[in-house]
Design a protein that fits this description.
Elements (H helix, E strand, L loop, with lengths): L3 H19 L8 H11 L6 H14 L9 H19 L9 E2 L2 E2 L1 H5 L1 H20 L9 H15 L4 H11 L6 H11 L1 H14 L4 H28 L2 H4 L5 H4 L5 H5 L1 H17 L9 H12 L3
Antiparallel strand pairs: 1-2
Helix pairs in contact: 1-4, 2-6, 3-4, 3-10, 3-16, 4-6, 4-10, 7-10, 8-9, 10-11, 11-15, 11-16, 15-16
Length: 301
């Protein structure tokens, strides 16, 4: 019987090891910058995005992720980008948060200027890992180029950053459902969708497999953000690692604010089930992805 907890722990250990080796040591000059980078990178987290990439590759190939050339650097680059986005999200000019993953936010420890630079450096490090000949040895160059483009597009103005911009501009304003869905599918969903596609691409997915996993990633990504919206209301600071109700205080546009808490739960569950349904062409090799989709809406943090 498949054990999701063991699977997630094993993959997280693989990701953490790579990230620990890829990031400069905290004591390396300039120490403040490198210390700041590692502070957020090592603050914990579920590593959902790299794990999704690894699981998608395994669903396509039926092989262990550790055996696929270039896959781990590609998967971990997603976590580097995600971490940079959290550092910048927490800044006073953006969400102005005091805590992240149960610890003071990066700028509270290192100051705003260094926190900004640490985010910049983590984003750059992601593309260094993606293109490092030593780390990606054995990967098909065409796949590698496609993966670099996929991640760059998902992280930029047409994806995550675009969603963040609309999110900030919408604070305290009346927005319709289409605008809310744009924010969620871009700010969070774009990188999650890309994570699944990157894993599939690295494993040599055919068009049918890639299409199915794209649908999975789209639905799972939106479900993940709705679950976050719900947790901002129903969770505790100990569970979610940051201030509860901060979205409501800032007038953030969320699913509970627009359609209510119960309807949001229904929508998240529907999306989770739709994500699982998209995997119908895969056999047991996709079981981790199925269980992750269910876990996304059931989690407490």
């Amino acid at each position: 019987m498949f054990d999701l907890k063991t699977y997630l722990n094993d993959k997280k250990a693989l990701v953490d090891k790579f990230l620990g080796e890829a990031a400069p040591e905290a004591g390396r000059f300039p120490q403040s910058l490198h210390g700041s980078m590692r502070y957020s990178l090592e603050a914990g987290g579920k590593r959902v995005r790299p794990v999704l990439a690894l699981a998608a590759a395994e669903a396509v190939s039926g092989r262990d992720a550790a055996d696929m050339p270039g896959l781990l650097p590609a998967a971990c680059s997603l976590e580097l980008i995600h971490t940079y986005s959290l550092i910048h999200d927490d800044l006073p000019a953006m969400d102005n948060d005091d805590f992240r993953r149960g610890k003071p936010t990066n700028h509270k420890v290192y100051g705003e200027a260094v926190a900004i630079l640490a985010g910049d450096a983590l984003l750059t490090l992601a593309f260094e890992a993606l293109s490092d000949p030593g780390l990606t040895k054995g990967m098909d160059p065409r796949r590698q180029l496609g993966i670099i483009w996929e991640i760059a597009y998902a992280a930029g103005s047409m994806g995550m950053v675009g969603g963040q911009a609309v999110d900030i501009e919408s604070e305290g304003k009346e927005v319709d459902f289409a605008a809310l869905e744009y924010i969620h599918t871009h700010k969070t969903g774009a990188l999650i969708r890309a994570s699944v596609r990157v894993g599939a691409m690295a494993a040599g997915a055919d068009e049918k497999q890639l299409d199915a996993l794209t649908r999975y990633g789209k639905d799972a990504g939106l479900a993940f953000q709705i679950a976050d919206d719900i947790l901002d209301i129903t969770g505790t600071q100990e569970e979610i690692g940051k201030d509860v109700g901060s979205d409501l205080e800032r007038g953030k546009k969320t699913y509970p604010a627009l359609i209510g808490l119960e309807e949001s739960r229904v929508r998240a569950k529907e999306l989770s089930e739709s994500a699982v349904s998209a995997l119908g062409i895969f056999g047991e090799s996709a079981e981790p992805l199925r269980e992750i989709a269910r876990y996304i809406v059931a989690r407490k943090n």
